[in-house]
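Recall the central idea of this unit: under ordinary conditions, the amino acid sequence of a chain determines the structure it adopts. In this exercise we apply that idea directly, starting from the sequence alone.
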Amino acid sequence: MKKIWLIALTCSVLSALPCVAQDLSTRIQEIKSSYAASGSVVALDEKTLLIEPNMPGPICALPTEEGGKTTWSLLTFPLASITVPLAAVDESLISEDVVFTRPDAQETYKPGEVGDTTMVVVVGLPGKQFPALTYDRDKLAHLGPGPHAASAYGQEADKVEAFGLTFPDHAAARAFRIALKDAVIRARAETDRP
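Accordingly, the structure predicted from this sequence is:
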């Protein structure tokens, strides 16, 4: 009887493994489609993403209300691309903030006003960094239309511990955040499996 039970348990575990991989593939497709308006996502393999944001990325102004005063954090992530091994992401720190991208936001802001863009922030596990290609925003801004060599806008290799991605649509940002968190959990489960 014990032998039959062990065989049944083994069969059920083995039959569940393709479902985990299929669910990870589904999550990656959700990540791609939710980010389509902001850039592109390519699966380098079943557990690594290459994210290429539209350039130039906006300067994001994030207001914080403290003691009746508004203070501002200005954030920019000049990424040409970033390689994201899913198992290196800290899923507990994936967050989203509604930010302002219009240039006059700090002058015209009224307390309680909601920003025009959603930013999803992704942080690596302690000691992990993401390979990235960054660019110089000022050099890019001064280029005319047409194709340009990466050196013309100061593209260079870098490594970052965290990055932000912007979405003009809040629902797309939320779908991206949820799918990414689930994909990270599934990728880590597959990586940790003996």
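Residues 2-35 form the longest helix (34 residues).
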